[in-house]
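Researcher: Please generate the 3D structure of the following complex. Treat every line as part of one assembly.
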Amino acid sequence: MSEGIAFYAIFFAAIFTNNILLTNYLGMCSFLAVSREVSTSVGLGSAVIFVMTATSVLNWLAYEYILVPLGLIYLRYIVFIVIIAAFVQLVEMIIERISDKLYASLGIFLPLITVNCAILGASLFMIIRNYTFVNSLFYGMGSGIGWALAIVAMAGIRQKMKRSRVPRGLAGAGITLIIAGIMALAFMGFSGMIKIT
Amino acid sequence: MKKVFADDLGANNPVFAQVLGICSTLAVTNVLKNTVVMCVGLIFVTALSNMTVSMLRKYMPSRVRMMVETLIIASYVIIVDIVLKAFLPDISRQLGPYVGLIITNCIIMGRAEAFALSNPPGLSFLDGIASGIGYSYVLLAIAVVRELMGSGSLWGYTVLGDWWTNWSIMVMAPGAFFMLAIFIWVVKGINNKEEESS
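Model: Done. Output below.
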């Protein structure tokens, strides 16, 4: 199915037309919780880009070379979750040793990422769509960038909005969802450009 | 026991009060049928994983607690996934990765952490069912509106006649965001009024 799609098409589609947050609704929990400040959302966004790229690749390898040959496809959820959790833990430990500065800016977000559904979602989408190795790499990276783009944009809007008067019932989650809806509408403008299924 | 139900369905409803687990809220609610299937699966997983966590709570070392919980949840999700593939292959295909994503639904983990770790298995089972239902009725309400307005039908049957022009935006991504925001607004508005009057 995906044989004909070039990796750069997948890359751009994952960022714009099939944005993992705005069209597939993945990673909403942390999106709502951490989008108050631009600086924190940049930190979380870059952590997501990194983890998503790496785990897509790792999960692809585990799926093709371990699960499929052994006929254990039904175990994929457990395996993916364990790989993601282990990877995040490992990176956290490494970053802590290497650089305090990086740990302060990136490390604190890593535990949040294990429960971010976008990470698992990207891996599951890549399996369902039968991506090749290179495609998975670029799909993971593109989805991560797309997610980061959305959360940074949202944080920017919310910072501006601090001074505006929001109806009481809408303050917090409500207004954020409405902005996300408008952003999704805007991203739909890209939809004619590239299509991946 | 009654209090458990009342809390989870009303004031402490996971979707409104804590805005948890809305990933799948949004993704599957464009068609009512898929939503019902998803809800049943979710209630099953929440109830059983809550019970299992509660039964194991005295044996789990607290350092690896989260990991154990995740694995328990993942095992039940696999059961749901396999059952769906066998009996409802069409819906299973439409739901795609979202069945698997029940694992990362924060509600289940949240209930396991907040309730099952400190309560006996029976009560945890009930709490799982209650929070599952509390989550489901929000999903169902959103799904009814979205399917009705987006495709003029309910459960796949055409309800509104030819005069109805479909709001295709409702079945697409933005519609889901707007609907959930409106629901939260309404519920919070009601809660605020109650607070003021009491």
